[in-house]
Amino acid sequence: MSFSSDARTQHVFGWVSIIWFTSAVNIAGSQRVELQTISHVAARCGENVTLTCEAKPLGQLNMVNFIWLAKSKTMCQYREGQTSPKVLCESTDQPLNHSLTMTLLNVMPVDEGTYLCKLQSNLGAPTKKTVVTVQDCLGSFDSSINESHAECWFSGVYPSGTISWFQGDVNLTDPAGTREEVDHLGLYNVSSTIAVLKENLSQPYNCSLWIASARKHLWSQQLPLVGKQTSSGSMVNLQWICVMVEIMMVKCVT
Questions:
Q1: What is the pTM of this model?
Q2: How is the chain split into domains, by residue range?
Q3: Of 93, 128, 156, 221, which sits 20 to 30 A from 68 (CA to CA)?
Q4: What is the pLDDT of residue 249?
């Protein structure tokens, strides 16, 4: 009985040893190549962003596949060039350093997200990611003012923001509010209108674009005084009246 029990124990121990050895080899194999990337990149709208993924092998590397992925779509493939018109791809092949570089062209908010570098090889199948974010985008801005209301708008904004109004040290933001719409690139167009206070026309209005996620004002602009615009318009009208009177007097004399 003891002989049978010892044989069974040795048999079980043998299988456990084989399983442990196989697992150790697999784990060691998966760690024999390492990928190196930048974990996070922040860019402004319109910039080109370059992402490089380097494979550092501990031994002879035979690659099956080496790619950049975004939203489950292959963006760049090793030695195959780009698969999208929005990117440029470049690869290098050295004995102990293989790299795949992807350049995102004219980055916009729709390009934000996680980009995965994946390698399949005889030394393992590691994955690394780079998160791309877009910030501080502002395309254009303008404003207008008359005796009844003032308006301010910003186009090509990202991240989304709100418009703050000031007249001197007085904050007039609450009654104004902000309207926004987003385009196909993920950019926002924001605008705001506020009633002009006729009791206080001596101080100019200021509107600024507040980005809450960044906790800062991205841009500020001062509107001209209403009184100056009105005076300028009145002066033009007065000049036209003088010209007309002079013409009539000349006709009467002749």
A1: 0.70
A2: 33-134, 140-225
A3: 156
A4: 47
